[in-house]
Write a structure and sequence with these properties.
By secondary structure, this protein is an all-alpha fold. The protein has helices at residues 2-33, 39-52, 72-85, 87-90, 111-114, 122-131, 149-159. It has 2 domains: 2-33; 61-159, Cytochrome c-like domain (Cytochrome Bc1 Complex, Chain D, domain 2). The protein binds heme C.
Length: 162
């Protein structure tokens, strides 16, 4: 009897401790990432990205830099393509809330958040847009056959304004 309750005590202590330990990074992440009031959304975005981006862009994408000069015209053209080809899933402002995306799993990325994260290098964005999504079951289609290369770069200029 005595032994059992001692064991229960030890177990409870271990559990409480480990859940405390798990809470700490979560809280810290929430605090650092949620500075602008993103709170839980910020944390979820962070977690999603971690899963999503264990894979990095393969050659030749990994070394690519946007060769199309930044200009208002390039951004405007990118915006047009975005509204025609991407907004159905990613939403008119790229928040991941397009009508066609609401029932998808995984959900379309919040591109406004993605472009502000460290992994969103030119080559990474070009890779996903050209070759399609990388998450298992992703509905993100490849666009290299339907959108010309320069237009994909214009699209990336636009994404960076989101
Ligand atoms: C049929 C719906 C659909 C369409 C259309 C679509 N996407 Fe996506 N997209 C997704 C989904 C779902 C994901 C998240 C899963 C993944 O990354 O594989 C995603 C992910 C992405 C990512 C990766 C974000 C990251 O964290 O790396 C980028 C960039 C992106 N989309 C850009 C675009 C652009 C630009 C277009 C238009 C040319 C577009 N998508 C059209 C569904 C779509």
């Amino acid at each position: 009897m005595r032994r059992r309750s001692a064991l229960v005590l030890v177990l409870t202590a271990a559990l409480t401790q480990s859940s405390c330990l798990m809470m700490v990074p979560g809280l810290l992440a929430g605090r650092t990432m949620g500075g602008g009031g993103m709170g839980m959304m910020g944390m979820m975005g962070g977690m999603g990205n971690g899963m999503n981006h264990s894979q990095t862009a393969p050659a030749p994408y990994d070394k690519m830099l946007n060769p199309v000069p930044h200009s208002a015209a390039a951004v405007a053209q990118g915006a047009q393509i975005f509204q025609a080809q991407c907004a159905t899933c990613h939403g008119p402002k790229g928040l991941g809330d397009g009508l066609a995306g609401l029932r998808l799993s995984p959900r379309p990325a919040n591109l406004s958040q993605v472009v502000k994260s460290a992994h969103a290098k030119d080559g990474h964005l070009m890779w996903v847009i050209s070759e399609g999504g990388r998450m298992p079951g992703s509905a993100m289609p490849p666009f290299k056959a339907s959108i010309g290369e320069e237009d994909r770069w214009r699209l990336i200029h636009y994404l960076r304004t989101l």
